[in-house]
Amino acid sequence: MRRPVARNLTVLAVSAAVVSVGAAAPPGPESGPTPKTPVAVGYGGAVASVDPDASAAGIEVLRKGGNAVDAAVATAAALGVTEPYSAGIGGGGYFVYYDAKSRTVRTVDGRETAPLTADGKLFTENGKPLAFADAVSSGLAVGTPGTPATWQTALDKWGSRKLSSVLAPAERLARDGFTVDDTFRSQTAANEKRFRYFPDTAELFLPNGELPVVGSTFKNPDLARTYRELAREGVGAIYHGDLGEDIVATVNKPPVDPDSGWNARPGDLSAEDLAAYRAKLQPPTRTSYRGLDVYSIAPSSSGGTTVGEALNILERTDLSNAGKAGYLHRLIEASRIAFADRGRWVGDPAFEDVPTKELLSQRYADSRACLIKDDAVLTSPLAPGDPRRPASCAGGGKAAPTTYEGDSTTHLTVADKWGNVVAYTLTIEQTGGSGITVPGRGFLLNNELTDFSFAPANPAVHDPNLPGPGKRPRSSIAPTIVLDRHDRPVVAVGTPGGATIITTVLQTLTGFLDRGLPLVDAIAAPRASQRNAAQTELEPGLYDSGLRGQLEAIGHSFKSNPEIGAATGVQRLPDGRWLAAAEKERRGGGSAMVVRPAR
């Protein structure tokens, strides 16, 4: 059962001999852009993210003796500078940590929360749900940020450095600037219209009223000052101080250009909401797969339960020897089933009775796996089962369609010389978040509350993802760490991509563990994403291949998606080296670095 893992380790141990990639501290913009490389092997620790300046910030902290938690926070803060449309202190996320000393996995739920005044009608107007586009760029969409509390909680519990120390590389990066690339410019262009609704956003991200030029240096002095304030005063500046007051004022009266004609609906965030916020320490989800233990984040995210259920459904199928079409068919159908159950059962466990244990039981997975046939395709939307009362091949009630989630977000993966590992996914929801910049502060606010259902998916069935006071909206984020039978790390992965996060993590894990792909190739493989919908999304590498025709012949229906996710991962090699892996092409390619490259 474990041979595919051993094969991966052997292949990568051999390939490591020809890889020699490391990183210095982040260079100044005058030295040009930091080079990207999708794979690096060496000693002393590793960092993988979508951005080379952010990865370099993490490596800098590791080189100075910081641990994986310290480096993860440093990398995340730097991503708030260079990937401001995907992450930042105006958002939230989920942090999964492996402690090498105790050989245990811990997690932090840093998801944003709805205002304490919110109810199930948060996104209704005149008795009808708002259009998604009307809700996104508004104060209504903004949840209480959880990222700063996540950083402080992780550092307090497992870090070795103060917040002021790990923020230093990001503060320097914001002050001195980074080199604009094609991805940053194209993301700005995609948001240009709504950025112009908000003068502070336009001033920051459309310098001199124009799109940033590729190759130019982009500086964010407001964010540099904000990071200095956080370094000096701690995250209390947000949850109890002046910075929080600025956030509240911005949400409740969005600073919109009156000539734009945009109705930036006000939110109802208060100082009490910020003061009440807590990042939650909680146990991870755990799934046994191929003799390994797969750990991820528990609800309020559906990532751990849905990836885990799909893996359990696939457990009794030999994916290592299946043909390509057979492998994809099984992957698609397992995902379809797991998403059907996600839509019915997963929400914020502080408000909903989420059957996490039952969703992750092998008994329940087996009762659902029997729905899959080799020569036929399940119809979507598929009805959920009942994990508390498993019945072979049975559904349970009406199907709930998958709600839309923005496809932005960013993921980083870190390991240190002591063997600690972090998989951390952070987000402001869709690319550009709400589009609202806090005046003078240099960061965008999230639109995470649009992850709630605007209205019940089915009025006859309870929807666990309706808004509520202080409630966390359901997420699909799935930072994942895999341990061997001795509770030592094998691999850690994660990705952005909204609801496609779940399918990308599932495909990356099975590609690596079952199909024998080196980690960087498992990440680069063309993706399929089935989320209990009538059609499965395929990237061009699959959509334009002969595999599509083979799968259509048994009933699959597909549509093209040009790009799904942007994963990163780290792997522990048998000789003690770390391998960091990132995208080869998606989002312009990712950045993998190690402290001391292998020669």
UniProtKB/TrEMBL annotation:
Fill in the PTM field for this protein.
Cleaved by autocatalysis into a large and a small subunit.
Reaction(s) catalysed by this chain's protein: an S-substituted glutathione + H2O = an S-substituted L-cysteinylglycine + L-glutamate; an N-terminal (5-L-glutamyl)-[peptide] + an alpha-amino acid = 5-L-glutamyl amino acid + an N-terminal L-alpha-aminoacyl-[peptide]; glutathione + H2O = L-cysteinylglycine + L-glutamate
What SUPFAM superfamilies does the annotation carry? Answer: N-terminal nucleophile aminohydrolases (Ntn hydrolases) (SSF56235)
Its pathway is:
Sulfur metabolism; glutathione metabolism
Give the signal sequence positions: 1-23
Sorted alphabetically, which keywords does the UniProt record give?
Answer: Acyltransferase, Glutathione biosynthesis, Hydrolase, Signal, Transferase, Zymogen
Which EC number(s) does the record attach to this protein? 2.3.2.2, 3.4.19.13
Q: Name one GO molecular function term.
A: leukotriene C4 gamma-glutamyl transferase activity
A Pfam cross-reference name: G_glu_transpept
- Segments of this protein annotated with the region Disordered: 381-404
On the tree of life, the source organism's domain of life is Bacteria
- Summarize subunit and interaction data from the UniProt record for this chain: This enzyme consists of two polypeptide chains, which are synthesized in precursor form from a single polypeptide.
Q: Which family does it belong to?
A: Belongs to the gamma-glutamyltransferase family.
Q: What is this protein called?
A: Glutathione hydrolase proenzyme
Q: What is the lineage of its organism?
A: Bacteria, Bacillati, Actinomycetota, Actinomycetes, Kitasatosporales
